[in-house]
Design goal:
By secondary structure, the chain is α/β, with parallel strands linked by helices. It has 4 helices and 8 strands. The strands form 2 sheets. It has a 5-stranded parallel β-sheet with strand order 3-2-4-5-6. A 3-stranded antiparallel β-sheet has the order 1-8-7. Helix 1 packs across helix 2.
Length: about 180
């Protein structure tokens, strides 16, 4: 795939600063980490959730349960997608009942992925609260969903795509804007 990078929004240092800030904000808003759990939306949200969990471990000296959601079967666009996505395992290593769950995703756009993730979480039980943390919020919401924690707000066009790359799967930490195919 050839891509035309229009702008590089975040490099590795910006990426780390944003995740550190989000981790501190999560601890501050929740007055600590009691009853707190983290779930990342596969794939990049899962990586970001692990990193935020590690940063909170350093800040608070506590290990938070971290899991991953695969929202494939909860999406409302399965029939209209150009390519079928192979589902992966949802891994929730804790009971969600009574927990404060921080849901982590890479990009918040229409709100549809977050809505699908919330539906899936609720199928597992009744959390006390679900909070949303995203590395990038690009606007253009189609559902009344907002992020509680945002690494960077990025105004963008529908003709653009915001790509979050993580070193674990993409070889580098960065956020870029490219022209949509």
């Amino acid at each position: 795939m050839s891509e035309n990078i229009k702008a590089r929004l975040m490099d590795a240092r910006d990426f780390e600063r944003a995740l550190t800030r989000i981790a501190h904000e999560i601890v501050e808003k929740n007055r600590g980490v009691q009853n707190l759990c983290i779930l990342g939306i596969r794939n990049r949200g899962e990586v970001l959730a692990e990193r935020i969990g590690a940063k909170i471990r350093v800040i608070e000296g506590a290990d938070l349960p971290v899991g991953a959601l695969d929202i494939t079967f909860y999406r409302d666009d399965m029939a209209t997608r150009k390519t079928a996505k192979l589902p992966q395992e949802t891994h929730i290593p804790f009971a969600v009942d009574g927990k404060i769950i921080v849901l982590v995703d890479d990009v918040l756009f229409t709100g549809r992925s977050a809505r699908a993730a919330i539906d899936e979480i609720i199928d597992f039980g009744r959390p006390t609260a679900i909070q949303l943390a995203v590395l990038v919020d690009r606007g253009h919401r189609e559902f009344p969903i907002h992020a509680d924690y945002v690494g960077k707000n990025v105004p963008s066009s529908h003709l653009e795509q915001v790509l979050v790359r993580v070193k674990e799967t993409d070889g580098a930490d960065e956020v870029v804007i490219v022209e949509k195919d």
